[in-house]
Amino acid sequence: MGAGAPTITGRTAWRALRLPAAGHDFVHARGDLFESTDPATGELVAVLQASTTADVDAAVAAAVAAGSRWSSNGELRARVLYGFAQALRADADRLAELLTREQGKTIHEAHIEIAGSAKMTEYYAGLARLVYGRSAVLGDEVTGVVLREPVGVVAVITPWNWPLTLLVRSLVPALAAGNTTVVKPASITPAISVEALALLARQPGLPDGVLTCVLGSGTTVGESLVGHDGVDMIAFTGETDTGIRVMKRAADGLRKVALELGGKAPNVVFADANLDKALAGAENAIFTTCGQICTAGSRLIVEDSIHDELLERLAANTAGLRVGDGLDPSTQLGPLASAAQRDKVLEYVGRGKTEATLVAGGAALEGELYDAGNFVSPAIFADLPTGSSLLRDEIFGPVLTVQRFADEADAVALANDTEYGLAAGLWTQNLDRAWRVGRAIRAGTIWINTYHHFYDEVEVGGYKRSGIGRQQGLEGLYEFTETKHLNFDGKATLW
Ligand code: NAD
After folding, report:
1. How close is the Cα of 307 to the center of ligand 1, in Å?
2. With contact defined as beta carbons under 8 Å apart, do 402 and 358 qualify?
């Protein structure tokens, strides 16, 4: 471990939550108890009750029954969603602490996640009053009116890495478009999800049943939701293999799906880039959320002439990163979110050591501060053989591979040598090249001389095995609508 191992200064006395508690009657869960624990310390964060099949039925039935007052009243939807955004901001300190305790991310990032979730909610609150169609004159006295209607009941299934942002990114546009919803949060981060949802559920004017929630594992609760006859659409964010499974199950009922899946993003640095910025960008790209982010720039691809210099500087910086408890404000990387995730990362590191050069990190951290948590020192590998699983698989942890390229065509070929297509970065001061390479890389977001900047107004989503559909922006709202054409013949009796 590099210099400056942290002392834990941020912890306050903490009593585990017992959820659902009073004010959480939107949660349908009467099954077995399960626990959520702190990945930094192993402490209990919350005790929750899982949902049974009967609970899933009840949640969906409530969502089916809730419909029309909500779908026909954009002003009400806007008011409720603005209220939710304000409540998120007002409760940011408590929510951020809970998010860090349950997920492990740094408290700084937890605050960014909550503020960003509030901002995205405000964006869609505005758009809630813009959900209407258009008309077209289609010939002599023939008019087409195209209505934009909600899909119906939307099941929102979320992962644990950015549990609030990814909840809001599907749930809020679904609600803004007039749908009713059933949410199933990840079992690793249920408490932060339920606590945030409670702020929405308590908004004055939200009709009963518009927001319901079920809890528990994906293979039981998630699957019964996806296969439920009352569900019209599934908005799923998670692993590609799970997404495929969800899509197959949804196909039995021909239910609509929106899938936001895994990634293995290339981050390409040309020799003409501003190297200081590219270096900082490469670190931000891979180490945000300890590498547990779908857009992680996990494959750094560097032009030959600067490869060795960049690798050396990167290795030195990485060895000095402060790994520790996310509640300590000086921590730069928290723990992995679960023991399973830590074990997966260490397995890839072990494989990497046998086939490539480990340039930094890659150890399970030990000692008083680390023993109870899922800590791994961030790892960098170079000299990887073609076809290495470290280059191919989404590891979802702080593991960076570094490859070299000879020319632009080589860089593009390496960048596109993946089954995924969620995001990419490129660093160059040559605008023509930025345009050419940006167009040639097959991914939903290409960051040029920056990384990990998201804007509510702009769509994100995946090419290839990274997903189906788009989120954020106007398209992220329209995903949750159907269009209906009413065709009027004015020569007949109507006008
Ligand atoms: P996961 O696929 O294991 O689980 C995601 C959610 O699906 C959880 O709520 C889980 O309980 C549920 N689930 C699991 N099996 C299910 C099934 N058979 N039927 C229905 N639901 C089921 O993913 P994860 O480990 O929670 O999250 C990490 C993954 O999410 C990574 O692959 C990451 O790239 C991806 N991700 C993608 C985006 C994006 O925008 N594309 C954003 C964040 C995370």
Report:
1. 34
2. no
